[in-house]
Amino acid sequence: MTDIDWNSGSWTTEPAHVVVADDGMRVTAVEGSDAWRITSYGFVHDTEHALLTSFDQDTAMEVSFLLDFSAQFDQAGIFVKVDDSTWIKAGVERSDGEDSLGAVVTRGFSDWSLSPVPGWHGRLVTIRASRSGDALTVRARVDDEPWRLVRVAPLDPDAAVTAGPLCCSPSRADLTVHFTAWRTEPADTSLHLDA
């Protein structure tokens, strides 16, 4: 596994504040920042704070952060981008009073899936996106617990793709996310880890 330098990526939207230190990167989101396209809400939000670098075929990327959310739609994780209307965000989001693990897959229109993770608050969350063949496989875990499968989504094997840490704060101005790691390694060899 290889660490990615926090200074090697480019922001899709500049955060309010960024501090890089020995223990990782702290990102303060701008109030109203989010990523969404049309479905159900009727709007396009493309103001997410995603620090992106090249994400090659047959590669996996991991982002780790400390989970400390309190406001509706606080979120952090990984953002995988092909273009402005083709992208995937996956991680933990605070929704209706609880932290939930989920993903938004967008190909013109966004979809959204969530699953509550009530025991994860205050712990280290890692989101892993693995690019292989025509798919992106997203897994997550808390601390050193086993990986959970979050999503398998189509991803053009020939597309130029970027990816990296993501945070958004649709409903408040003072969300700061402490990212502790950003890493890459070869893609997972199987969809099912025990295979």
Automatic annotation (TrEMBL):
InterPro entries: ConA-like_dom_sf (IPR013320), DUF1349 (IPR009784). This is DUF1349 domain-containing protein.
